[in-house]
Amino acid sequence: MKQLIILLLAVSTTLTSCETFLDQVPETSRTSGNFYQTRADFYNALIGSYNDLKRSGVYASGSGSLMVMQEMASDNSTFTPTRQPVNSSTFEIDDLLFTKSNTISQTAWTDHYIGIGRVNQIIARVPAANFLPADKDRFEGEARFLRALLYFNLVRMYGDLQIITEPIDDPYATKDVLRSPAADVYKLIISDLTLAAAKLPTTIPAGEAGRASQWAAKALLGKVYLTQQQFAQALPVLKDITDNSARTLMTSYSAVFAATTSYAANTETIFAVQYKGGLLPQGSAVPGTGGGAGVTQGSDMWSNWAPMGGGALLGPNGGSGNGFNTPTTDMINAYEPGDVRKNATLLTSYTSGTTVVSSFPFVVKFRQQGAISNDSDVDFPILRFADVVLMYAETLNEQGMTADALTQLSRIRTRAGLKALTGLDQAAFRLAVEQERRVELAFENHRWPDLIRTNRLVPVLSTKGYAVKDFQRLYPVPQRETDLNSRLSQNPGY
Prior knowledge:
The structure is a single chain. The protein is mainly alpha-helical and 494 residues long. Among the domains are: 3-200 and 475-484, Serine Threonine Protein Phosphatase 5, Tetratricopeptide repeat (Alpha Horseshoe), CATH 1.25.40; 301-378, no CATH class. 46% of the residues lie in helices and 5% in strands. It has helices at residues 3-20, 32-35, 39-51, 65-72, 88-94, 103-125, 133-158, 182-199, 214-227, 231-244, 301-305, 311-314, 329-332, 341-345, 385-398, 402-415, 426-440, 447-453, 457-462, 479-484; strands spanning 77-78, 269-273, 326-327, 346-347, 350-352, 355-358, 362-363, 380-384. The strands form four sheets. It has a two-stranded antiparallel ribbon with strand order 1-3. A hairpin with a 2-residue loop joins strand 5 (350-352) and strand 6. It is globular. Mean pLDDT is 88; it is low at 5-29 and 282-295.
């Protein structure tokens, strides 16, 4: 399932080595000017770009910026460790005190643009490359998909952005680039995804698990249209996926996220960040032996999200848990009686043997009993079929086809062990699908963006006691960016 990940270590090491010597490059070294020559060059660069999704500012498993900014900021979860200077930026976002100096937001901005910069190299250079057109098309399609995903994350968090679409070799080349309107960013995203959908294959072999397919591009495109409230454009895209793709709902909700579910057997995941436990970068020692960094390509999600002191859950080498992304009481109570997703998503206590050790709530959705701490195989889903079904249902409702929308919603509720909803009008369905998305997609970075795109952020959170303001629909542009580029405007309210 994880063959693709094995290549990341060597690729990351190679690219990092090149970057280290950019100031004094021998003529025989591989630089951005002479690296992109062969199919292997482009393939290695592309794999490195997929690895960028695991950066701290992007989807870095358990504690990346997006998990804090798109999930923990919402009413779904909270941060429970002791307050210290080292975690002050996490508490700021959890407390809805968005500051320009927040390091988590800064890392999100920087790491997304690093990823964009790398795929720009591929997009700009692959048309002139000398290898099979089919391979060139696929590489360009994957690079455009990744660029669209990165820009989509950024535009939802910051609004207007610096649009960079060409390779940048001068570190100061963007110091005077202004922010472009969010509408222009969305035009670029839609253009990239439309082209990606035309160039990408419909199926991905098991040996290439983790690479984007045509259906991944279409699912993201449907989400972009939905976010823009362009329901007429979203409808045929989402219908195409539900009707014609090989993706479908897994029979068991918990099996979608289980490490034991192979890539081939997982019919629901459309695109996910892939992790592989037990792999070490060159020069690293096996964790626990005292030599080397001990950094792996595994996910630290389960170790981070387990309750503090939860060693009984993690095993003899699993650590003690960090209490990150703790479910709120409101999230715990959001599940209807009989909803099988609740215990597959979170628990409110755990036992050691027959003794209750803790009544502390914690997320179990991505649980895996690993051999060592911070090193599990559990992938993190970015796009999955259940999300598409719910988006399709929402789009049908907004187009006045509420009866059809209820049929789609019933697919999700039936798997959860719940009765179908009937007799809802358009307004009531909006609340129903909002609720269903919350419990179906909990802890997958959907809640905050969902509340914003439906204009429900302030009405929902304020009634629950959160001190949220409408301008917080956007995060502030990080202070470091405006210091480096005095022409960058700041978002209102900051």
